[in-house]
Structures are given as C-alpha cells and as structure tokens.
Amino acid sequence: MNRRAFRVFVSSLIIPGALLIAPLTSYATEQGGQRRDARDVRQDTRPEARQTKAECRAGEEKTRAECRQDKRDTKQDGRQEARDIKY
Q1: Which pLDDT value is given to residue 79?
Q2: Other beta carbons less than 10 A from residue 38's beta carbon
Q3: Which DSSP string do the residues of 10-65 spell out, in sequence order?
Q4: CA distances from 73 to 20, 61, 70 (A)
Q5: Is 2 helix (H, G, I), strand (E, B) or coil?
Q6: Domain count of the chain?
Q7: Can you give the residue range of the structural domain that contains 68?
Q8: Are 79 and 42 in contact (CB under 8 A)?
Q9: Which has more confidence, 34 or 8?
C-alpha cells in the first residue's frame, strides 16, 4: 500500500470516529450540569428540613416522632425535586 492510499484509509477511519465522539462529550457536559443542579437543590433542602423540625419542636404541638417525620418529608420533597431535574 502506498503512502497516499494509507493516509486516505486512516483519514476515513479518524473523521467518522471524531464525529461520533463530539455529541457524547456535549451530552456528558449537560448531564454533569444537571447533576450539579440536583445536588444544589438537595443541599438547599437540608437547612429547610432542620428549620421545619426546629419550628415543630418549638411549637410543642406534635410529638418528637411527628417532628422527625416532618423533617423526613421535607427532605424527601427535595430529593424528588432533584430527581425531576436530573431525569
């Protein structure tokens, strides 16, 4: 095989390969951004859950178990919102 034919052969393999890789990198970047946004939502939910529990305990209207459940519910709402962002 002469050099010119070899270059054409290699080029015919490299160019389609590069075209296939380009969309994958943009998808990975987009997916990474979604994961960061979801993580931010979950992190923002934590202080809200603590605040919910503190307010519940200060009110003394519910038992400690009910206040814990309120906190869990608040955190679960944040997790669901994060899932909605990611998927």
Answers
A1: 94
A2: 19
A3: HHHHHHHHHHHHHHHHHHHHHHHHHHHHHHHHHHHHHHHHHHHHHHHHHHTSS-HH
A4: 44, 18, 5
A5: coil
A6: 1
A7: 3-86
A8: yes
A9: 34
What the block records as the tokens of 41 is 């939502």
Q: Is 75 within 8 Å of 28 (Cβ atoms)?
A: no
Q: pLDDT value at position 18? A: 61
Which single residue is written with the structure tokens 């603590």? 50
Q: What is the pLDDT of residues 45-77, one digit of tens each?
A: 999 999 999 999 998 888 999 999 999 999 999
| Contact assessment for residue 76 and residue 49, using Cβ atoms and an 8 Å cutoff | no
Structure-block tokens of residue 65: 């178990």
pLDDT number for residue 83: 92
The structure tokens 């809200």 sit at 48
pLDDT digits (tens, 9 = 90+) for 12-35: 767 776 666 666 666 678 888 899
